[in-house]
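User: My collaborator sent over this chain with a note saying "see what the structure looks like." That's all I know about it. Can you take a look?
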Amino acid sequence: MLTRRIVRIFVAALVSAVTTAGAAMPSVYAATASAHMQMFDVSHDPIQFLDSHVMEVAGAHVNGGCKFTVFLSRGPSEQRVGSQEIGRDPLACVELVRIGHVNAVSLPTGVNDRKAGDPCDDEFFGWYDPFGIKLTDVDTGGCFSYNGTYVGGCYQSYNSVYAESPTGWYVRYRNNGGSYYNSNYTQCYAWSAEQFENDTFCPAGSTYTNYYDNELIMQGNGWVGDGTSSWSSGQCTNLMHSWSNL
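Assistant: Without extra context I'll predict from the sequence alone. Here is the result:
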């Protein structure tokens, strides 16, 4: 069982290109992608971007994979935002990620946007195959009050997980987590930790998706954030990519 990590690491490089949903990948990818960068077919993903840009995100080698944290943030009245992994270099531990506002109607889950007088929100993080089939996901909700500086009344409202059992995925480890405040009560975190396993997805051996930690960040200024750290490990990880929304 892995120990709960409080520290969140996010390393992002410059914006490489600006695209719109459905647009062809620009030629800048050729300059940005390394010799070992694998580009994913994301055309079947159930996520529609209203606007987007592409970022290069650096990760870290951990437990047989590359662990990445793609941070998302959204204001109280802002449209839902999302991220989509479109390329990964497993040797350099670098990924290309599309980030932008998304059409919430197109999303299969993770659309529990807050309403007036009900300051609750959620974040969703999932792993998908090249056909757009969801393999695993974690959806965490939280509620809070805020006064412009400090956050209060914070709690994790739910934590749900999904494993594509017909294709052999199952939950190997789960910690439902809970919620906690930072030291000056300007932020509150609803968190959980999970690991999924599939022993038949790849003929070469077992495959894993890891969420350490899955995290919804609630702030005293009314903003929310997604600070989930996740990675795939084991065999045939080149057949999987991730996307998230907040």
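A starting point for your reply to your collaborator: The radius of gyration is 17 Å.
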